[in-house]
User: What shape does this take?
Amino acid sequence: MTINKALLALAMGVALAACSNSQQAADSATDAAAAATDAQQAADTAAATGDAAAADAAQASADAAAAAADAASTSADAAAAAPTMGEADNAADAADNAADAAEQAKDAAQEAAKK
Assistant: This one.
């Protein structure tokens, strides 16, 4: 009976880790989507100023943020569907990296909009 309990505890630990990876990836995808929205707002603001160069730069950054948000979402889906904990962890890391890229693109869009 003790071996069964140990195996059950191990299985529960693996399941918990997989859920954690999926949640981390989902959170990253949400953060990336928010950054993409903010970047697009900055691009829209830059376009309203009439400064074509600033508007173009801000829009390019907003597009990059949107692409990163899409990548984060795809990675979140991959983390949720991953057959192994290692693959789920890799997908969660990819989602986190994409969210970071979206945040950097948002910052670039906002900087371009200030010019």
